[in-house]
Design a protein that fits this description.
Layout: E1 3-7, H1 10-30, E2 35-39, H2 46-57, E3 66-70, E4 72-74, H3 85-97, E5 104-105, H4 114-128, E6 133-136, E7 158-161, H5 164-170, E8 183-186, H6 189-193, E9 198-202, H7 208-216, E10 234-239
Parallel strand pairs: 1-10, 2-3, 2-6, 3-5, 6-9, 9-10
Antiparallel strand pairs: 4-8, 7-8
The protein binds 2-amino-2-deoxy-6-O-phosphono-alpha-D-glucopyranose.
């Protein structure tokens, strides 16, 4: 049975995901267990990060003993580039939630040898033991991280070419589509599946088809998010629109 929660609005869905992350952090602290959060970028998790920041400001949450690992970064963008995922994370979570740079990891996109950087990042994630909880979004084409359709289900962190529809979708963050990097370093599907638990947050009609295929269709590399069926602790958190193509028995 797939674990699916459906909410009336995108904000409510994001709030549910934020609560799951908060409770995970608090449980780890209570039990004195390591807490490693896998984090995603994009528009969908923004309200999640807003909730987490609000709780830190009101002293209901602390990230002192939390380590974070982001899924991906654009090849060619330095950590201080305004459209880099480093900058996204600093602005939307790290600076506001008191997450120090020494505890927050992302692949570095501006290195001379991105393939070597991908290998370094894979080792970093694996040697740490993988995220204890991974927050994921989903692309309209079913990508997770930047694992585009066709990515091997056991793939590890590597340099990938971005699909044209991903470049088009992400061009909204750039002045012009020509500025969108064509490659990224992403955790692989196999890397993602090492996470102890996974939350997938998807909102809006544009994600309905990708969500339905991921949950209801057979596992297939042509739809990377379907690989999540191979993991025993995945929770899908959706709004009504993103859930609109699910069969009623889900
Ligand atoms: C991006 C990221 C993914 C994200 C996805 C959806 O390209 N690499 O991690 O989940 O696309 O983004 P959004 O939430 O903006 O729809």
């Amino acid at each position: 049975m797939v674990d699916v929660s459906v909410h009336d609005s995108a904000d409510q869905a994001a709030h549910d995901a934020a609560i799951a992350i908060r409770d995970h952090v608090l449980t780890c602290v209570d039990h004195k267990q390591p807490c490693r959060l896998g984090l995603a970028t994009g528009g969908t998790p923004l309200p999640v990060y807003r909730d987490l920041v609000r709780w830190v400001r009101s002293d209901r949450l602390r990230f002192d003993d939390v380590t974070t690992f982001n899924l991906d970064e654009y090849v060619g963008l330095a950590p201080d580039h305004p459209q880099s995922y480093h900058e996204y994370m600093r602005q939307n979570l790290f600076d506001e939630a008191g997450i120090r740079g020494c505890n927050a990891f992302l692949p570095i996109g501006s290195v001379v040898d991105p393939n070597q950087e991908a290998r370094r990042y894979e080792s970093l994630v694996v040697d740490a033991g993988g995220p204890t909880m991974q927050l994921l979004g989903i692309g309209r084409n079913g990508h997770i991280g930047f694992n585009e359709p066709g990515s091997p289900l056991d793939s590890i962190t590597r340099v990938v070419d971005l699909a044209d529809d991903t470049i088009a979708a992400n061009s909204r963050y750039f002045q012009d589509i020509s500025e969108v990097p064509r490659q990224a370093i992403t955790m692989g599907i196999g890397t993602i599946l090492r996470s102890h638990s996974i939350i997938v947050l998807a909102t809006g009609l544009a994600k309905a088809d990708a969500v339905a295929r991921a949950i209801q269709d057979p596992v297939d590399a042509s739809h990377p998010a379907s690989a999540l069926q191979l993991h025993s602790r995945v929770r899908w958190i959706l709004d009504r629109e993103a859930a609109s193509l699910l069969h009623s028995d889900q």
